[in-house]
Structures are given as C-alpha cells and as structure tokens.
Predict the structure.
Amino acid sequence: MAVNKIEQYLIDLMVTYKEVADNLWLLDDEEYGMEGVVIMYADPVVIFRVLVMEAPQEHRLELFTKLLELNASDVVHGAYALEGDRVILSDTLEYVTMDYEEFRATLEAFSLALTQHYPLLSPYRIGHTVIEHNPPGGA
C-alpha cells in the first residue's frame, strides 16, 4: 500500500511531516530545509512539489532564463516549473519502482536547490528590487 511505503520512508528519514489528506503529506522540517514540500501519491506516481515563489511581473524573462539554466546545470532531481504565476519545484517518481534511495535523493535535491538557489532567486521575489547588470562595454 502506498501510504505504508511513503510514510515508512518519511519515518526512516526522520523528517517532520503530517498527513493532510489520504495519500497527501506535507513536510514541515526547517532543520532539513524542507518546509512546505508536498508529497502526493496519485497511482501510478508519487509527486513531489514545493512552492518556490510568486513570479514577478517585471524581470520575468531574466527569472525564467535563470530557472532554465538551473534546471540544466544544477537541479539533480525534478525541475523548476511555472504554474500560473507561481514558480514551483516538482519531481515525479514511479511508485512501483521507487525505492528508499530514490525517494531520499529527491528530497535531498529539493533541500539543496531551495537553500543554494535562494540567493540567486531572491532578487526576483515580489517586493525586492532587481539590480540591473550592464555588461562591460555595454551601453
């Protein structure tokens, strides 16, 4: 049963979580950098998602370019995506073949991305001023 496998992995990882609905868990573990991570079992997959930020109206192209660059070079499991005006980090694993190591790797990749990418993405958060960078010799 999905609940047992996923919950057992969460217990084994010693991550703070709560089951908010059938087949839906919310991680709230500041120590491991996994606040607000949602795990959902939707047969045949396990979906991992976390809200990263609201996408600003200004400097969107710069932000989206940065997210695509991070997807290509620095996100080990999952990818940044746009859902409406929200930037999310998402990954999907096939339940039947998912093992503890793969489950743990996804959560570790999320934690790493959220902590290491924060300084790169925070200037684009709504309410922050984005500093314009002019290339050397530029106009």
Summary: The helical segments are 2-13, 60-73, 100-116, 118-121. The chain has one domain: 2-124. The longest strand covers residues 45-54.
